[in-house]
Each structure stands twice: as structure tokens, then as C-alpha cells.
Amino acid sequence: MERLRKIIIIIAFLSALTLLNYFVIRNSHTVYVIADVNDLNGVSVTMDRDDVVKVKDIQCQYNYLGSDDLIIIKLKAVGKGDTGLTIKTPDPDLPKRDCMINVDSIGLITEENFAGSLDNIMIIRYEIVLILLIMIVNIIFQMEKISRESRYSYKLMFYSGSIAFLTICAIIWIWNLIFINYYSNTKLYTLYNDLINSFHIFAIIVFPFIFLLAIFLIISNIVLIRHEGKKLTNMLGIALGIGLVIMTIISSLAYYILGNVFNVHSYGGIHLELAIESIIDVVLCYLECMMIGTYIWTVRAAKHVPAFDKDYVIILGCSIRNDGTVTPLLKGRTDRAIWFAEKQKKESGKDIKFVASGGKGDDEVVSESEAIKNYLVENGISEDQILMEDKSTTTYENMKFSYNMIEKDFSDEKNNENNINDEKTGQPAVIFSTTGYHVFRGGHIAASQGIKVSGIGSRTKWYFHVNALIREFVANMNIERKKHIKNVAIIIFIIVMMLTISYVFKFM
């Protein structure tokens, strides 16, 4: 019902804009002539017929090149039909200009049967800016609503990336309105071209940042490989960094590259080149926006500290050393859990139970949960405060098996009248501890099972942190791959349809 209501509102809004545009644009048109003249002496306008259009005004003003040589002829519709228009100027290089003017049955005037010359089209540019701002505000409200329900929703990443894209687009369009308000801005074909090129302009603007990011990714991955060895996962940053730079360069040079394959100067060639370039730009911009969203919410999730009122903390396991002790990564997760327990005890006086979660791998001498437990005991945690979940092999199983164990222990506590119940929900209050970059995905995995938990994250070395963020980005894209493919396909479909309409009706 909510979606239907939004659709009705959008249709009503666009219908109102369409009606407004009709009354603003109809019955008027402006012909622009660039000629080397300083005034209107010697400029004349003649028509084959007087019952189609009439001249309302003739002006001379500075053009976008900075010379006082732009002649503006404003026309008003009189009746339906076609008429030839001849504009004579004293410019020896352009003594006259001939064009055909058409007025249709609803009063729209086009020049030479070319719909790209509708007058007063600037109103649509203002409307586009308004729509962009409305979309940004709406997405912000949607994000706030979703984040109140769960800070681990993948929609938050998508919305953050969308805001980044829409904000840059809004800045571009506002800039054009204020600083590049020359005569061609009032023509439909430039408006159409700007719409299609939004993704390309976005890619060009963010390219310096992507280039710097690519360099940083490559450097951090080289350092990581030196410390951790040559693994495929340790090379993701290098591959992604180089890939983004190459895609941006190919997009920027598409016109010249494709010029060796087909004639990009022909009318059909222009549209084909734009279609190929747009597809590359859409994929590139989508990846960049999702990277922005992943970074924002991964960092926010890692820095978030839940309220100090928890009953259990799940420590997510990872690989251990050959002697059965915790690795620096697992030590960081366990230390973070200990820190939270001590902080909670100090703030609220409430104890917390630890759930050491992680099974035994084929190359491990003990289970990860046992390694965690041993480390907890070494740091003064009583064994009575520790539950061991030693069957899980993935984060999904970590959450599932641990929470099942928590529910059983929680129920036993209630039966023993030693109730550690959260009074608001009647359910145990649970957090999980993992490495900072893994908090968001861990929270999403828990939420996908209906498990309500919050996460805390431990720090890691800078070179590992960068590569881990890239791994999280890849993992996030893979988990929601069907949605991402669908989103990209819809955007590409819209652009291809716009280019098809442009080709058929000669909008460009």
C-alpha cells in the first residue's frame, strides 16, 4: 500500500510538471544566430507565411564565447503549419540563415522539424534540480528510518552511494544554471545530452579521487603481500584499483577508440558510441557509489559502541596459530570483548557472559573457541562466564549456533531465578565482537536470521584494513548480486531507451 501511494504521488507530481511545461513552452520559440554584428542594424527576418508565427522581439547580446554577436529572434505561434524563415545579417561570413519553422496542433514550435529547438526549455533544468534535491532529501529520510530498525541493512550502502551520485549531479546542474547559462542551455538536445552524460560527468569528476585511491590500494596491497604472502584475497585491492582506473580511461577515450571500429561521426555512430560509453560509465559509477556506501557504513558500524546493558558477547572466531594460541587478529577481537565487559561493569555494574565461537579446522590443533577461552581465562575471566560454541565454520554458523546456545543458557538462568533478562524485550541483550571491517557484514548475517544483535569492532593494521574493506565490498556485492545486477540493468535500459528515442525523433 505504501509503495502504491508513492507511485501515485510521483505520477501526480510528474503530471503537474508536464502540464506546467506545456503552458510555459507552448506558443513561443527562440531562434539563435551567431554572427559578427554589434547591433541590430542590417538584421532582418522574413517568412514565407504570416499565419504560422510572428516575430515578437529581436535582441543582440553576448554569446557564450564572450563576443557581442549573438542574435536572438523570439517568435510567437499564430496558427498550425510550416513556414520558411530567412534571417539576414550584415556579417559577410554569414549573410543569411534559412530554416523551417513548424507549429503543431497543441502550439509547440520546433525548428526545421527538429525537436531539439523548443523554447523555454530552461524550466526543465530547474525542475531537474528540484527533483534531484527532493530525491536526496527522501533518501536521507529513508536511511534514517532503516538505520533505526537495523544499522546493518545493505539498503544503507545503496542509499549512501545514491546520495553521493545525486549530490554531485545536483551540483553539476546548479553550476550549469548559474555559470553556464548560455543560449544552448535552452535547447532540448543539450538537455537530453546532459541527462545521458550524467554518469560520464560523474566518472570524470571522481576520477582524481579514484586514481589516488587506486595508488593507495596498490601500495597497501604490496605491503600486505610482503607481510601475509601472495594470496588471491591479498591482491583484490590491486585488481580493483587498476580496474577502476582502466575503466575510467576507456570511458574517457571511448570516442577515439571506437572511431577505429565504426564511423562515430555519423548520426547512428554518435548514438552507438554514446550507448557503449554510457554502459561503461553506468557500471563504473555504480561500483564507485557502492564502494562509497560500503566504506561509510563499514566504518560507522566499526566505530559504533552499543549501550552497556548487554547479557552476552559473542566473540567470532578466525584462524589460530599452529600452537593453538590466538593470532593478533583473534586477540584483537577478544580484547575488544574484554574491554566492553570491563566498561559495562564500570558503567552499569552489570556482568556479561562470553560466548567463544568457532570450530576446529583441519589444520588447527584445537578449536577456535578453545583458543579464545584459554585467552580469556589467561586475562582473568572466570570459566563460569564463558560459553563454548565449537561447531561453526562460517560467520553464519557462528551467529546461529551461538545464539541457540545463548537462548538455552538464558532460559536456564530464568528457571534458576537468576534472571538476566532485558526487561524491555524479554530477550537476552546480545552483542558480537569481531574485527572492525567485519562488523557490518556480521550484523547483516545475524539480521538475516532474525537475530537482533549489535556489533563492536577491533582495530587492525592499516595495510590489512584497506584490503579487508575491499574484501567486504566484494562480499557485499556478491551477497546482493542479483539486486545489483537488476539495478544496473534498469539504468542501462533507461539510457538505451533514451538514446533510441533520440535516434528516432532526432533529439541529438
Note down, in words, how this protein is organized.
The structure is a single chain. The radius of gyration is 32 Å and the shape is elongated. The chain has helices at residues 2-25, 122-149, 154-179, 188-196, 198-228, 236-252, 254-258, 267-303, 328-348, 368-378, 395-415, 439-448, 462-479, 481-505; strands spanning 28-34, 44-47, 53-61, 70-77, 81-88, 96-103, 109-111, 312-316, 353-357, 386-389, 430-435, 454-458. The strands form three sheets. The protein has a five-stranded parallel sheet with strand order 10-9-8-11-12. Strands 2-5-6-7 form a four-stranded antiparallel sheet, with no helix packed on it. Helix 3 (154-179) packs across helix 8 and helix 8 (267-303) packs antiparallel against helix 14 (481-505). The protein contains 14 helices and twelve strands. With 508 residues, it is an alpha/beta fold. It starts with a helix and ends with a helix. Mean pLDDT is 83; it is low at 419-424.
Give keywords:
508 residues; alpha/beta; four-stranded antiparallel β-sheet; 14 helices
Radius of gyration: 32 Å
Strand order within the widest sheet? 10-9-8-11-12
What is the average of the pLDDT values? Answer: 83
What is the terminal separation in angstroms?
A: 40 Å
Q: What would you call the shape?
A: elongated
How much strand? 5-15%
Q: Residue share in helices?
A: 55-70%
The largest pleated sheet is described as:
5 strands, parallel
**Helix run count:** 14
| Poorly predicted regions | 419-424
Number of extended strands: 12
Supply the helix-strand structural class.
alpha/beta
Task: Give the H and E element order.
Answer: HEEEEEEEHHHHHHHEHEHEHEHEHH
